[in-house]
Design a protein that fits this description.
The complex is a heterodimer of chains A (198) and B (328). Chain A has 198 residues and is an all-alpha fold. Chain A has 10 helices and no strands. In chain A, helix 3 runs parallel beside helix 5. Chain A is elongated, with a radius of gyration of 19 Å. Chain B has 3 domains: 56 residues; 176 residues, Jelly Rolls (Sandwich), CATH 2.60.120; 71 residues, 3-Layer(bab) Sandwich (Phage tail protein beta-alpha-beta fold), CATH 3.55.50.30. In chain B, strands 1, 2, 3, 4, 5, 6, 7, 8, 9, 10, 11, 12 and 13 form a 13-stranded mixed sheet that branches. Chain B has a 3-stranded mixed sheet with strand order 15-18-17. The relative contact order of chain B is 0.08. Classes of the chains: A mainly alpha (198), B alpha+beta (328). At the A-B interface, helix 2, helix 4, helix 5, helix 7 and helix 8 of A face helix 1, helix 3, helix 4, strand 16 and helix 10 of B.
Chain lengths: 198, 328
Amino acid sequence: MAETRGTDFGDARSREQGVIMSTAGVNAWFVREVLPLEPVLMTYLRHHWPNQSDIEDLRQEVYARVYMAAKQKIPQPVKPFLFTVARNLLINQARAAQVVPIEAAGDFEAFAVAADIPAPDRAVIARDELRRLQAALDSLPPRCREAVILGRIEGLSGREIAARMNVGAPTVTEHLEHGMRLLANLLYGELPNAGNRK
Amino acid sequence: MSQNHDRATGLMDANAIEARAANWLQRRQFWNWSEADQVDLDRWLIESEVHLVTFLRLEAAWTRAERLVALDPAKLENPTPEARKPFWPVLIRAVAGLAVIAALGAGAVSVTRPHDRTFSTPVGGHETVKFADGTRIELDTNTVIRTHMTTEQRMVWLEKGDAFFKVRHDAAHPFAVIVGNRRITDLGTEFLVSREHDKLKVAVVSGRVWFEESDKPAASQSALLLPGDVAVATVESTRITKNTAQALANELAWRRGLLVFDHTTLAAATAAFNRYNTAKLEIADPAVASMTIDGSFQANNSQLFARIVKRTFGLHIEIEGDRTVISR
């Protein structure tokens, strides 16, 4: 399953035209290039949308639109594109919901430039990544954490986790699902501790 | 575009979709997963890009979390297990857990002497031996020591492997480690001694040690080692260098069950894993051998290391019985 890289056609050309990729390539691109931008995206959405309970819905919609566009061609560079999508979505949503988005979502470029989060270098399993993972794991609720440790770290099956924790399968399922969702928020949703990054 | 969503009137419910995605993800990994399940999942994923991106996001975070196995599970569950253990049970456990081997042919020591003991660890083993004087010796993988601990004399022979010494200093009763023809005398100290065939390495963490050739007159080849000093001795020569604190900490990571790599070639990394595991890693390709890796890994989980290497560098792994071959 070789991964198609966005730089295959050379930088100048790919920046102008984008690159067409397989589904697996788009998926990998999305995980590698878009998800690391989540902290800035979330900050942007929170600043510009009055109803905080909509934020996750908006985020997923932005992702879906960016993904749809990427299937046609990979937008490069990705960050301004992501924020353009976010701004347009907020404007359309505001019109439909008849609310006024805060500051009319105008300063997206400042966001796109100011908070420059380096994409993780895939060739390096950095120690700060481990620290971040450890911190994320530490912040899970105890029983949920236990299920995640048994399942993700010790590699047990669902049935084995149930036996080890002395609970039923539905409870294990619940802990694992909860753990997966919390980890996604902890690993993508929050700004990494800047001091810990190289 | 395969699917047009008209969402002018409202967004899809991210919370409900994420719950569904988490359900798919954990079912796929932890419970019975059939072809039919995969078909259902694929259908759900192409139904909407929101489904797909939600699933990708959870899956990516969950995959990232796999690297947590590199952390010490004991540390995850119990921050200071060592501190709570009373002295005697540890010693009893250590003695019971270790193969007690008769000292063979050494002449100087015989098994009939009550104060002499041999401790060893198998490949992948890690044991701590505590003595009545408060001295602790930690044995790394595949290590054998012989001890002679009395009220008058404290001596340890390192036959092979790595041992970390935390010595309760007592000037009246010096503590000496003997490796071949070299003697390391503690002057209030924590230090690491490694022996691989005829190569000896001594690294000082704190305090001081006196390093000398035991079968020659004093001062022939002797040196005072201070924290950070590393002495590497072969039959012919002794070389003393300085180690950075970080390099030393990495070298002692085995005490926590870890291997820590810092721009380490895969050749050296797999060699390190092979010291801790009976199932061996092999590299089939020189270009692969020279790739470098960073990070900390559980020493006893070479399979996980192989999987991480596979994913990180896009390599292939093939498992043939006890051998795992890594290639391009």
